[in-house]
């Protein structure tokens, strides 16, 4: 049975290879079939592995081959299956399969379907390697692989230059984080002599006491990598632009899986972070700041996908907050439920977008709830989970766990940020749903929307909707043996918090309903001038990070490149050649052919030599 | 004797190509292809049958070679024809054979004038390079070092392209020649200085590598001699203030010339440092290491920044070479076994990915008749499988894990971090810049709105095979680098021993007598 494990990444990889070398012989249907089947088989294998793991919950490792062996440097192609990687594997292949399937409907009739599925399959393979790798170098392979696929898929519609630049930005910004992660790897290997995760976790407490500067630095560097991948402050700017890709890509890569890789990394390396309490706290603070920053930004977006993008950032902020207070299990639990409901929201958004002839502007949509009942249902269920509607949604249980961990560990400030975030979440969710499905259609595209049909369109939405409810929360990730247990506290406090969080969520929804259904005119008036307009602009541009980075980094870089373009150093070295040329020209001038001049200079030279000799004597 | 044949075969093959021109354009191509395949097969045979692993318990006392061949040349000065092969030279010769085959293949349609003479020059360059990798008599080494220069000059001057802004192919060829020639002369002076120092100490003239390694040298003299060698190799590598010849030569050379330049000629610089500069002057090199690594850092950033600003696709790729060679320089002077092995991997990786990119720019040129990226854009859907291959090699050149480029770069960084953490950390920022210039290349050539209707010719079978072969090698060695690393392991271990046995680093100015 253990031999099944490599199949989880080999099957999608095989899909990629088949698609890459098909030379467009497969056609749209054939490509979709290959793409969906390969991930489907991987999901099947994962189901078998899960069944087996439930029977005998033991972590196991298998080494496929020695990758590099020079001296102490012995990274392997080794896989490790434990509760954490199994949870991730389930999300990747399970949600991945549903999204691949949905994409068969979404991408139908578009150009480049083969390319699309080749990249999607490659993404799944890389992501599986990321979570299964038993050492940090193999994790890094998956880490860069998913980044590459993200780049390729954001730039899928390459005819528009802006999409290419969005892809470019995504890759470069995450790569900045990756460089930190790489340095972190160098440091860890130098200090501990291994890259194997289990050995690192074992040796770290032996090598360092808590708060040791070296381990703080190592944790900080790992955090740098996580911030880039998971779009947290200050490396978050790429995610909103990444929405240029096809919507299933946004669902799979930029909501459910890749962007949560940073959360996975920190959870996986928890032993290092626990030795660096200051850095761990920083993780939580960054999470809290990001969740608030992004929630405000989500309030002021007009593009349906950008709302969801900022919402994703905000929800990952919650996961970072959970990690920061030591609630590792809560973070992974929220990672899982978030994958369900955010994938649902993105796919529903995809359904809306295709039905409305690729209209994405909320202001030009509206009144769609009768025309697109399934997408509406998806939005309502997903939105309820996102807003953590009490008791019936999966999001409630996972977010509640995060807030409880913040309280139980005594981080009042972070708890407050989480509660405020919950209020904002309800607000922007309601604004989105009302804007898209209620009111009057804002354009012809919305007026003649045609609902999608067929199994590929319906089934993924229905399954994800079910998983976003209470049913999803019943799935209990087997994390006990991998991650440190949750903070405990009085049950009474927990109940009080639950009631309070529910109250906040409901209050947000009530406030939202009142504002967006009853007070639209008043709201429009507020945001059109004065402070309202200013904050709208600020939030719409997500606090102006892009402009700031442009001025601070991008423009200087471009000027530097432009200034150096002609190779300054070469020009300086070229002066030697220039000098020789000038000497040549100058001396050539003296060669006049006039005998008198030659004789005169000879006499002059001889005199000078004689005078010099006389003086020397 | 096999070693002599490795040099003689391309040499004779070149003559045959030249004469073969009488029967038309095809015979020289086939002769050249056969010749390089033969060289490649011989090296593979040597690899298959030889044992290049470190002998158990061996110490770096005596110089040990897998195969050796010697004959007297000028006995009066102790000059011999002394060839020797170890793992490092084997890897590089195999690379030469392989890239030789590719160089012949990629010129198949590109070169239409004086085909025979073209292949004569091409093969003689390769003969010279093989000689450089085999010679361990310093006089002979210098001989081959100069010998690869002249045919390269002709290759650029006669079959090159003219560049933008008045850059002529003759100018580029002359620049290349003067840079290399001047630095070669400095090396000759250093070689002679070393020989005379050896004569003064022992009363015997010899150019033998093994003997000269034992020469007792004063600190000051060893620094000056080391600098003489370093300068020659630094120009070839190239190291930043001495890189001026490279962008012009690469951009103006025909595709085969660029492939050979990037793939092999640059590697002679790194080879020279590993074979001569470090082992002959370990103490001086140890003291010089901070400067060299500083230059490596400068190279990484300077090359990357300039690459971003280029409009000529070949100039862009040329500047990326400078950036990659910065990593090589850091790895060599970090001197740990891991870093040195990384250098070998990165040399191989750079040869594959950069040659592939040059071949691709040649293929684009054959279809678009321009190398100016301002006239490209939106080519993705219009060129069949070319963009896909280009993507793969661009991604390799930015160091994507799974490719051998990643193995090389990361081994260098892992290996140098314990010695010089700051250098490794700063060099890591080069990873970001590598991503910027690599993706800019994709963005400018293949993304964006298409500039016209219709499709260009897809890759033909010859072009497809070249690309697929290179891609397979990049991925195979990226996932299974051990065969490569084991071949060069013993040599690199020896270099590392010498380097680490050298006295604790003194500052270079101290060695030079407080200048």
Automatic annotation (TrEMBL), chain A:
Main subcellular localization, coarse class? membrane
Which GO biological-process labels does this protein carry? ATP synthesis coupled electron transport; electron transport coupled proton transport
Q: Which domain of life is it from?
A: Bacteria
Q: Note whether Transmembrane occurs among the keywords.
A: yes
The record places domain NADH:quinone oxidoreductase/Mrp antiporter transmembrane at 134-425
Q: Which molecular function terms from Gene Ontology are attached? A: NADH dehydrogenase (ubiquinone) activity; NADH dehydrogenase activity
What are the protein's UniProt keywords? Membrane, Transmembrane, Transmembrane helix
- Locations listed in the record: Endomembrane system; Membrane
- Report TM segments: 30-51, 86-104, 116-132, 138-158, 170-190, 249-267, 279-300, 374-394, 414-434, 455-475, 495-517, 597-616
Task: Give the membrane topology, semicolon-separated if more than one.
Answer: Multi-pass membrane protein
One Pfam match, given by its short name, reads Proton_antipo_N
A GO CC term? endomembrane system
Residue ranges annotated as coiled coil are none
Provide the NADH-Ubiquinone oxidoreductase (complex I) chain 5 N-terminal domain boundaries.
Answer: 67-117
UniProt xrefs under PANTHER family: NADH-UBIQUINONE OXIDOREDUCTASE CHAIN 5 (PTHR42829)
The protein's name is: NADH:ubiquinone oxidoreductase subunit L
Q: Which organism is it from?
A: Litchfieldella anticariensis (strain DSM 16096 / CECT 5854 / CIP 108499 / LMG 22089 / FP35) (Halomonas anticariensis)
From TrEMBL, chain B:
Q: Which InterPro entries match?
A: NADH_Q_OxRdtase_chainM/4 (IPR010227), NADH_UbQ_OxRdtase (IPR003918), ND/Mrp_TM (IPR001750)
The entry's localization annotation reads: Endomembrane system; Membrane
Q: Which positions fall inside the NADH:quinone oxidoreductase/Mrp antiporter transmembrane domain?
A: 135-429
Q: Topology relative to the membrane, per the entry?
A: Multi-pass membrane protein
Pfam families cross-referenced by the UniProt entry: Proton_antipo_M
Instruction: Please cite one Gene Ontology biological process associated with this protein.
Output: ATP synthesis coupled electron transport
Q: According to its record, what are the GO cellular component terms?
A: endomembrane system; membrane
Q: Which residues span the membrane?
A: 27-48, 83-111, 123-156, 176-201, 221-240, 261-281, 287-309, 316-336, 342-365, 386-407, 419-442, 463-480
Quote one Gene Ontology molecular function term: NADH dehydrogenase (ubiquinone) activity
Tell me the keywords, alphabetical order. Membrane, Transmembrane, Transmembrane helix, Ubiquinone
Of which family is this protein a member? Belongs to the complex I subunit 4 family.
Mind telling me what this protein is named?
Answer: NADH-quinone oxidoreductase subunit M
| Biological source species | Litchfieldella anticariensis (strain DSM 16096 / CECT 5854 / CIP 108499 / LMG 22089 / FP35)
